Amino acid sequence: MVTIKDVAREAKVSVATVSRVLNGSGPVSDETKRRIREVAGRLRYVPHSGARSLITSKTETLGVLLPDLYGEFFSEVIRGMDDTAQRKGFHLLISRAYADRHGIETAIRAMRGRVDGVVAMSPDLDADALLNLPSTIPVVLLCSVPQGNEIDSLTIQNCRGAREMVAHLISRGHRRIAIIKGAARNYDAAERLRGYRLALRDAGIERDTSLELDGDFTEAAGYSAALKLLEMGDRPTAIFAANDSMAIGALSALKKSGVAVPDEMAVAGFDDIPLARYMDPPISSVHVPICELGARAVELLLHGITHKNDHARRRERVSTKLVIRRSTGGEDAAAERPPPSTAH
Amino acid sequence: MVTIKDVAREAKVSVATVSRVLNGSGPVSDETKRRIREVAGRLRYVPHSGARSLITSKTETLGVLLPDLYGEFFSEVIRGMDDTAQRKGFHLLISRAYADRHGIETAIRAMRGRVDGVVAMSPDLDADALLNLPSTIPVVLLCSVPQGNEIDSLTIQNCRGAREMVAHLISRGHRRIAIIKGAARNYDAAERLRGYRLALRDAGIERDTSLELDGDFTEAAGYSAALKLLEMGDRPTAIFAANDSMAIGALSALKKSGVAVPDEMAVAGFDDIPLARYMDPPISSVHVPICELGARAVELLLHGITHKNDHARRRERVSTKLVIRRSTGGEDAAAERPPPSTAH
DNA sequence: GCCCCGTATGTAATCGTTTACATATTTTTC
DNA sequence: GAAAAATATGTAAACGATTACATACGGGGC
Q: Rounded to two decimals, what is the model's pTM?
């Protein structure tokens, strides 16, 4: 492997001069510049970024810790991150980490010295253990709010989004509205449930806990929850699922049971994954700008990196938007923008 | 930031001893071990992986170069990579790179010293320019076959898959079968087209180039191609789209035009993205084990890293599988396995 | 002609580790 | 009980870059 020394020797100068030419720092005569460039090219010299970051203590790399790598959600969030990171000249070091305390801590440790900061997504409520991180390195927490410490965080407007969706159902005349809850101990799930309850309270509808079914964000959970609802004596007329996967599961259960959607039962989801549009009927959902979520997280992190001592802890949320489709009685906008072309 | 020196000073030993304890190399007395561990813990010492890799010349990181980060395909391939990488103790440094020669070369340069090897996906046929990479670093090429150099490559069994799908259509009695081609100058696209033609030849059907429509893997392209086909005097009875997105686009065009699928027109795709199952009717497709593709790429790369001099260049392909659904007259298997639970 | 300054280059310290080698101490072996 | 072997620890040289400081030279100002 050719190093800066090889170039220096070949060009009959010192390494310092080579470094100066390649980084455009310090004055070098034109003739020397030319010679060094020529040699570097001929030898196919490529600087060793690892060595460079050791001395400059900048890696120009951001760590990304995700609990999972399934599905559209993650590819979108990664895309958003990569876009902005790349624009600022940063790379992304991505790792899946168990959402528990130990997993995240280990992962962050493993990243010491290879990244300038970390975006960690840990929707798990227990992850507050992040409190006592070796907080020497800037961190932005995604989809959960750390309690009382100095870590920046970025979340989805879960509560507001859920509240609006349920309000929409109410405005369509529904009074008995069920919710299929998200995973236990999950921040997003908890907030969406809170929004659901607030909307009911807003409308003066009494809470009926038999309408709050457990779920875990999977299609299967949505399916079985819907079946359970159908067996009830006093059926609800609408189902709000805490995410689209469960809404889709519920929809198949309803279809299989011959229940008409939305006439006999309205269905709504959360996230607005591309699939939602394609279901039959298309599912109303709360749109989450996932890509933007990733982008904003990186921006926050970069800010944290450049202003390391500026300790104004930040708490931001990205806002959601209602998307009403046929599953709740809406008319499909014929011109609904198609999803980004997934070349390949 | 606390370094190994701080630990050494505090524990009243030399850095060498600290290193030995932390890496379990060399003999150290139990008492010293205990003391060093205690100090390291108290000081929250975290080794600087960058410095470590400088001396060991191992980064335990793999670079991943993707042309794009949209859609299910990429999240799946990344997941497959991360799974195996993580199992072997490696991280993933992911970067989007323009598929052209310059882009890939720049990206690989930027990764020098931060990764032990690179998986580069460059479906673009022109990317053969990879030939004269600073090939000092192991590379596995995904979804394209480099000409005549020593880079390992991993591709999809495009040709065979397409051939089988078209054979299936023929077995259903179709004789006039159109293809919506993939992006120009794209390896997968070219191979799928080749498979289509081979299948026709196998059945003794004469090739009709008016049935070979241009496309670019986007839904929109599928849509307009289908419209074009409908306008033809002598309509085909089946459409084979080079990927599912285009099949979906075609399907909407047919629906909108009131053409019955599969009775008036059969539709088939390629990739078997999750959406395919959910369409109405569900679309027959050629299943590509994307996750496995990523996993295998990493395995190849790791092999290349450990056996750097073992220059047996490898060319592998992952095999595809026909999935016949209603869009080509199949019966939907009621028990078709649901997609992996996309927990949010 | 001396001093000062700007330009071009080199020398060597540094970043945080690992590790070959040296040294000191203890244990084993005969 | 001395030599050999094993154990425990330290010293210092790497790894491949950047950069503060030193040096050398040529030219102006007076």
A: 0.90
